[in-house]
Amino acid sequence: MKDTYPPKGYFAPVLHAHLPFVRHPEYEDCLEEDWLFEAITETYIPLLQMMEGLVRDNCGFRLTVVLTPTLCTMLEDELLRARYEKHLGGLIELTLKEIERTRTSPEFHRVALMYHDRLTRCMDSWQNQYQRDIIDGFKRFQDSGQLEIITCAATHGFLPLMKTTPQAVRAQIRIGRDHYEKTFGRAPRGIWLPECGFYPGLDEYVKEAGIRYFFLDSHGILFADKRPAYGVFAPLYCPSGVAAFGRDMESSRSVWSAQDGYPGDPRYREFYRDIGYDLDFEYIRPYIHESGLRTATGLKYHRITGKVDLHEKAPYNPAEAREAAAQHAGNFMFNRQQQVLHLSTLMDRPPLIVSPYDAELFGHWWYEGPQFLDFLIRKIHFDQDDLKMITPSEYLEDFPRNQVAMPCESSWGNRGYSEVWLDNSNDWIYRHLHKGAERMIELARKFQKPTDLQRRALNQAARELVLAQSSDWAFIMKTNTMVRYAIKRTKDHLLRFNDLYEQLIAENIDKPTLEILEQKDSIFPGIDYRLYR
Question: Which of 108, 383, 467, 497 has the fewest CB atoms within 10 Å, measured from its CB?
Fold first, then answer.
């Protein structure tokens, strides 16, 4: 591709990689830890392999990736690393059995061979290329300039519903920033506000943390206190000077929507039919939960097919699915070209298309998602001159003059105004979270010169509070998935916090119990309770 400057427009894809902190050393086989294992196998390693291939083929690219503090902590944890390796080894063993079982069924046999190849390459990347440290894999791409990694609030707390206690908002942001600096050896340039949740004034805490920009859903920009001259196709500066980037609705819909978007194509792999549920119980038992509960293995042999029952799904054809990914990548690029060609006639600078997605969409939910991204990036680089990939930091450097306006309170999710995280399924949690934040502030003010044991208890109280504040628990309650686990996690952390509070107030700390909590809820070893003063 002939490189031109400036192009007609820019494209800034943003992949938000996040999981709640799930670590249960008290159990030998924890069902919820599989969330992490599935994401590593199906999303994070495939994305790293994709970027390795792009670099190998001299294909220039720019991506922005959010690696949240909770996710990074789990990826760095030795217990979870060991459990992941055992999990992946079990899947590879299962694929060998599947190759034999499907030998007389050619349409399924080729899929079994595909899984064995992918999973063995995944193990090779995990053990040999990244030495069990995939954060370092992402860091290498940031250090070489192709990738911009940004941070998030400490435990993905939904900040608009915490604004009654500003110290809690500040602590979520500061803990996230400090964790990023420790992990990546530099200050973060941007932050992902959990669930794109924003309220006027939140930008001041972002500025205080030394962070330059954040992202909002479209209406957060469009309904700013001053009408944005360029809509979501250029950032706004908040009065604080922090930049807000808005999500482009058109490019989001084509990927997000299972009905109207690419992932619903009948050629793609069907997510909801898995051999963990289909095959004979005694055969599959060693590869599901130790209790005998049937769970997904990740080995799926059918395609979406159409609007038919699961048992009527047609066999999956990897070659046809790959062809669909290539076609959709071409269509996506063509549509973005048409967007920027039109918008460039209306603006005094090249328009910017910001497309944020959950990273786990690519590979986990949409199995062919990494192939789609790979095709798309290669087409953008080699096949056209109108569109150029860019990171938000690079755009701000190239176009430092932008309109000043205050975005409106907003979030992404259903209806776009916090409704997902505050309705009759989850509203009961907030009175307890607010009281916990007030008590944490009280403790931070009371203990000016704590003993070493008091300081440890104060820091553990802060850990329990931020873990209870995770937006994931309210989301799970709303969506009615794993509700009992989300309720238990919320209550457990609040009860642990309140026990520590009462011990500190009574000046009677139970040291053995504190040590158990420090081992169990070991997130953020450098946390400092004084953030709540």
Answer: 383
Q: How far is 270 from 248, CA to CA, in rounded Å? A: 28
Give CA–CA dist 318/114, Å, rounded: 8
Q: What is the pLDDT of residue 5?
A: 63
Q: DSSP alpha helices (H): ranges in 102-223?
A: 106-124, 134-143, 166-184, 202-208, 218-222
512 CB-contact burial (10 Å; exposed 0-12 / middle 13-18 / buried 19+): exposed
Residue ranges per domain, the chain? 9-260+314-415, 422-532
Question: Which 3 state secondary structure label does DSSP give 352?
Answer: strand
CATH number of 422-532: 1.20.1430.10
The Cα 126–Cα 523 span in angstroms is 23
Contact, 484 vs 430, CB < 8 A? no
Respond yes or no on whether the N-terminal peptide bond of residue 370 is cis (omega within 30° of 0): no
pLDDT in tens, 356-402: 999 999 999 999 999 999 999 999 999 999 999 999 999 999 999 99
Q: Which CATH architecture has domain 9-260+314-415?
A: Alpha-Beta Barrel (3.20)
Can you say how many angstroms the Cα of residue 301 is from the centroid of all Cα atoms in its chain? 27
Whole-model pTM above 0.85? yes
pLDDT tens per residue across span 453-502? 999 999 999 999 999 999 999 999 999 999 999 999 999 999 999 999 99
To 10 degrees, what angle do helices 166-184 and 452-468 make?
Answer: 100
Q: Which two tokens stand for residue 368?
A: 């062919």
Distance of alpha carbon 275 from alpha carbon 294, whole angstroms: 10
3-state secondary structure 370-416: HHHHHHHHHHHHHCCCCEEECCHHHHHHHCCCCCECCCCCECCCHHH
